[in-house]
Write a structure and sequence with these properties.
Elements (H helix, E strand, L loop, with lengths): L1 E6 L2 H9 L3 H4 L9 E8 L5 H9 L17 E8 L13 E6 L7 H5 L15 H10 L7 E4 L6 H8 L3 E6 L2 H4 L19 H7 L6 E6 L13 E6 L10 E3 L10 H4 L6 E3 L2 H15 E14 L14 E10 L4 E10 L17 H8 L4 H12 L1
Parallel strand pairs: 2-3, 5-6, 5-8, 6-7, 8-11
Antiparallel strand pairs: 1-4, 3-4, 9-10, 11-13, 12-13
The structure holds S-adenosylmethionine (SAM).
C-alpha cells in the first residue's frame, strides 16, 4: 500500500490525515472515481458493527465519488495492528496505518504450492516460499528457459514455471529422477507409480511449461556450446544430507570388459564443494545469456564467513547475497549472480579459495548421543 499515515494511536492517524496536504491525494478523490475503505484488524477480532464505526471515523476525507464495495476504482486501507499473540491482544493497537491499497502480495502461493500436498517430494525438496524467492531473484519472465542442474524432485522448477519459465533439469541420481527412492513421507510405505517431476507440474496446471529432466553428472557436460539459458536456479548438494559425488574412479587404467559394459554402474568419487561451485559458475558464465542470472545456495560455516571466500567468476557479478541461519554454526547464503560478459577462452580464470564446508561441519559438529554411547561402549571394551 501507499502509506499516508501511521501512528501508535488511532487518534494519531486521524490527526495526521486531517492535516494531510490535499494536493498529494487529490488524484484519488475525484468525483468520477468510486471508492471503498477496507478495515483490517490484525490479531484482534471486531464485529462488523465495530468495523463500520472505525470506517465511519474517516467521514472527513475529501472524497467526492460514490462508494462501491465490489471493484471500486480506489481502495483506502486502514489497519490496526494488535501484535502476534491472538490469545492476549492488548486493549489498544500497537500501531495504526492508513493509506491507498495498491495490490495484493502473492503469499497465498506458499499454501497453494505446499509440499504437504505435492505429488512427488524428496528428502531435500525446497519449500515453496524459498523456491518462489529464488525464482524472483532470477527475474524469470514468461517464455524464459530455465535450468536446474541439481534438480532432485524439481521444486525449483515448479516456482520457475509459475512465473512463466519453460523448465528443465538434470540430476545424477537416476532413482530420484524416476521417483524410485524411498518415500520421504513417514506415512507412505511405497512410491506411487505416477510420481514424477512432470506429475508435480501437472498438479499445478504447469505441464505446458515442462520441457524435461535428464540423468546427468554435472561434472560431465553434454550441452551444445551455443545453448543459452535465461536463468539457472539451483540448490547443489552440500555433502551433509546427500553426497557430493561425481562419476570417476581412483583406480589407475580402469577398463570395463565388453561383457560387463551393458550392466556397468559407474563408480563415483567425491565432488568437492570447491570444484562443484567452480564448475557451476564456469558453466553459468558460458551458458547464461548476457544479463541472465544464476541463483544458488552456498553453505557456510558461520565463523569462517568472508565475502572473499564466496565462489566467483570474472564474467559474473554477485548482485545479492542473503543469509539463512540454520543453527549456531552453520548457515546458507542465497547468492544471485548476473552475467556481465562472455567468458574469455584460454585465459586461466582466477580460482579463489573456497572453504570446504563439509570438513568444517564434521570437525565442529557436536557428537550425537548415539555417537557418545558408542564411544563409551568401545572404551569399556
Ligand atoms: C539439495 S538436492 C536438490 C533438491 C531439489 N532442489 C529439490 O527440490 O528436490 C541436490 C541434488 O543434487 C544431486 N547431485 C549430487 N551430485 C550431483 C552431480 N554430480 N551432478 C548432478 N546432480 C548431482 C543430488 O542427487 C540431489 O538430488
Amino acid at each position: 500500500m501507499e502509506l499516508w499515515s501511521y501512528s501508535e494511536t488511532i487518534a494519531g492517524v486521524h490527526k495526521q490525515m486531517k492535516q494531510y496536504p490535499y494536493e498529494l491525494i487529490a488524484l484519488y478523490m475525484k468525483e468520477n472515481q468510486t471508492f471503498k475503505i477496507e478495515v483490517e484488524t490484525f490479531c484482534r477480532h471486531f464485529t462488523q458493527r465495530e468495523k463500520v464505526e472505525k470506517l465511519e471515523a474517516f467521514s472527513y476525507l475529501p472524497v467526492k465519488g460514490q462508494v462501491k464495495l465490489k471493484g471500486p476504482d480506489v481502495v483506502f486501507q486502514y489497519i490496526e495492528y494488535y501484535g502476534i499473540d491472538p490469545k492476549a491482544p492488548p486493549e489498544n493497537p500497537y500501531m495504526v496505518f492508513f493509506g491507498r491499497w495498491i495490490t495484493n502480495g502473492l503469499r497465498q502461493l506458499i499454501q497453494d504450492l505446499s509440499l504437504k500436498n505435492r505429488k512427488f517430494i524428496g528428502n531435500t525438496s525446497m519449500d515453496p516460499q524459498l523456491s518462489l524467492l529464488m525464482a524472483n531473484q532470477a527475474q524469470i519472465h514468461p517464455g524464459d528457459i530455465i535450468l536446474d542442474p541439481f534438480v532432485g524432485s524439481g521444486s525449483l522448477l515448479v516456482a520457475a514455471a509459475h512465473f512463466g519459465g519453460y523448465v528443465l533439469g538434470t540430476d545424477i541420481d537416476y532413482l530420484m529422477l524416476h521417483a524410485r527412492t524411498r518415500p520421504s513421507r513417514i506415512t507412505q510405505k511405497k512410491r506411487e507409480k505416477d510420481e514424477s517431476v512432470k506429475a508435480n507440474m501437472a498438479q499445478y496446471g504447469l505441464d505446458h511449461k515442462y520441457i524435461d529432466v535428464l540423468v546427468n553428472d554435472f561434472a560431465i557436460q553434454f550441452w551444445k556450446d551455443d545453448i543459452r539459458f535465461d536463468a539457472i536456479i539451483t540448490d547443489p548438494p552440500y555433502g551433509i544430507r546427500e553426497a557430493t559425488e561425481k562419476i570417476g574412479t581412483s583406480k589407475e587404467n580402469c577398463t570395463v570388459s565388453e561383457q560387463h559394459l551393458s550392466t556397468h554402474i559407474p563408480a563415483k568419487i567425491v565432488y568437492g564443494l570447491s570444484s562443484l561451485f567452480y564448475d557451476l559458475l564456469a558453466f553459468s558464465a558460458k551458458h547464461l545469456k548476457l544479463g541472465g542470472r544464476l541463483v544458488c545456495w552456498f553453505p557456510i560455516f558461520r565463523e569462517d564467513y568472508q565475502e572473499d571466500g564466496l565462489p566467483r567468476n570474472p564474467s559474473l557479478q554477485l548482485v545479492a547475497n542473503s543469509e539463512q541461519i540454520l543453527n549456531k554454526h552453520t548457515s546458507r547464503r542465497l547468492l544471485t549472480y548476473k552475467k556481465m560478459s562472455e567468458p574469455i577462452n584460454k585465459v586461466m580464470e582466477e580460482r579463489n579459495h573456497i572453504t570446504d564446508f563439509r570438513t568444517r561441519y564434521y570437525d565442529n559438529r557436536e557428537e550425537t548421543r548415539k555417537e557418545r554411547r558408542m564411544k563409551r561402549a568401545m572404551e569399556r571394551n
